[in-house]
Amino acid sequence: MKSIRITEVAPRDGLQNEPRRISAETKIAFVDRLSATGVSEIEVTSFVSARWVPQLGDATAVLAGIHRRPGTIYSALVPNEQGLDRALECTLDKIAVFAAATEGFSQRNTNGSIEQVLSRLAPVIARAREAGLIVRGYISCVIHCPFDGAVQPEQVRTLCARLIDLGVHELDLGDTIGAADADAISRLYEGISATVAPGATTLHLHDTQGRAISCAMRAIEIGVRSFDASVGGLGGCPYAPGAPGNLATESLVRAITTCGFESGVDGDAVDQAGRWMRQQLAELSGASS
Ligand code: HMG
Ligand code: MG
After folding, report:
1. Quick one: pLDDT at residue 286?
2. I need a surface site. Which of 43, 157, 234, 271 has the fewest CB within 10 A?
3. In whole angstroms, what is the distance from residue 189 CA to residue 171 CA?
4. Beta bridge pairs of residue 227
5. Which of 46, 42, 96 is nearest to 69 (CA)?
6. Is pLDDT at 258 greater than 80 in this prediction?
């Protein structure tokens, strides 16, 4: 059967905006539960500045504690060379660098213009490749920016070309604030088709308007074969107002089956991992109230 890859981003995108302090032990137990679901990849954490994202300041400890499932790819976000230095001290298969299609989000999220961020990423990508790591290149705000408004596919196409030139192995297109509908997904892929084919991208959907699953189904029709998702729909970016949950892994797994594909993911294990993490968060709320 034709297969679709799922990257589980809950430990990173799902928790980065979480105000309750979650221990490294809980994060490790969470990642281990996610490994047992059979997802292709897990984005475990982030080597950004802890001043910017305090929740993920324990990236090294989390990566040191997890049990790696053979065949699963483990990755982490890296914004600059300082982050790469920290990442290279850990065991990782892949790093994810991130840029934005708009100046407004680039400034708010990474404290630099698009050009400055790309210059910052050039040595990160080169050094990561030298170290044998796979490099994912995220582009945020591919549909709409919370600061600059509507985004044209041409802006995204330009960024795709720049990141490919810098040497990323794959592109991940982020609908950061969940603004897309299915037709916007079609327009996006039509607009970037001269530079990148749908099957060479990962789609990263947020579910602000409840449309993420219809967007994913349209993307599958168009030829996208790789998605990010987060158990329990956990997630959001602290620097993108109006970006709550990610596309829920539970819904994505069902939609993939409905579309006649397989994901290799155990739906029951996904449900359990999501319920377990929600329970941990509920207990933390109880503890802090
Ligand atoms: P900056 O403040 O301009 O950095 O931040 P700087 O180079 O001027 O350094 C300032 C201080 O930060 C220094 O410390 C550095 O050492 C430290 P001081 O000397 O003042 O004590 N620092 C670091 N410490 C640890 N690790 C590092 C690091 N870098 C600097 N890597 C920076 C620039 C890019 C670092 C900052 O803006 C940042 O960390 N931004 C990340 C924000 C973020 O994580 N956002 C969420 C992830 S992106 C996302 O969610 C979207 C996505 O899901 C896709 C989608 O939905 O669209 C991926
Ligand atoms: Mg995101």
Report:
1. 78
2. 271
3. 13
4. 6, 203
5. 42
6. yes
Is 45 near ligand 1, meaning CB less than 6 Å away? no
Q: Whose CA is nearest to atom 50 of ligand 1?
A: 237
CATH of domain 5-282: 3.20.20.70
* Ligand of minimum distance to the alpha carbon of 53: 1
Q: Is 189 in the pocket of ligand 1 (CB under 6 A)?
A: no
With a 6 Å cutoff on the Cβ, whether 176 touches ligand 1 is yes
- The answer to whether the CB of 13 is under 6 A from ligand 1 is yes
- Could you identify the atom of ligand 1 that is nearest to the CA of residue 117? 34
Percentage above 70 pLDDT, the chain: 98
| Cα–Cα distance list, 273 to 16, 63, 184 (Å) | 18, 18, 32
Q: In the chain, what are the domain boundaries?
A: 5-282
Burial of 45 (0-12, 13-18, 19+ CB in 10 A): buried
Q: How many residues are there in the chain?
A: 289
pTM over 0.70, yes/no: yes
For 27, the token pair is 């994060």
pLDDT averaged over every residue in the chain: 95
Residue 90 annotated as catalytic:
no
Q: Half-sphere exposure of residue 115, counting CA atoms within 13 Å on the CB side? A: 0
Closest-CA residue, ligand 1 atom 9, reads 49
Establish whether residue 102 lines the binding site of ligand 1, counting it when its CB lies within 6 angstroms of any ligand atom.
no
- Position of tokens 């967007």? 215
Task: Please give the distance, rounded to the nearest whole angstrom, from the Cα atom of residue 29 to the centre of ligand 2.
Answer: 22
Ligand closest in space to the Cα of 239: 1
Residue 287: what pLDDT?
Answer: 67
Buried b / exposed e over 233-265, threshold 16 CB at 10 Å, is bbbbbbbbeebbbbbbbbbbbebbeeeeeebbb
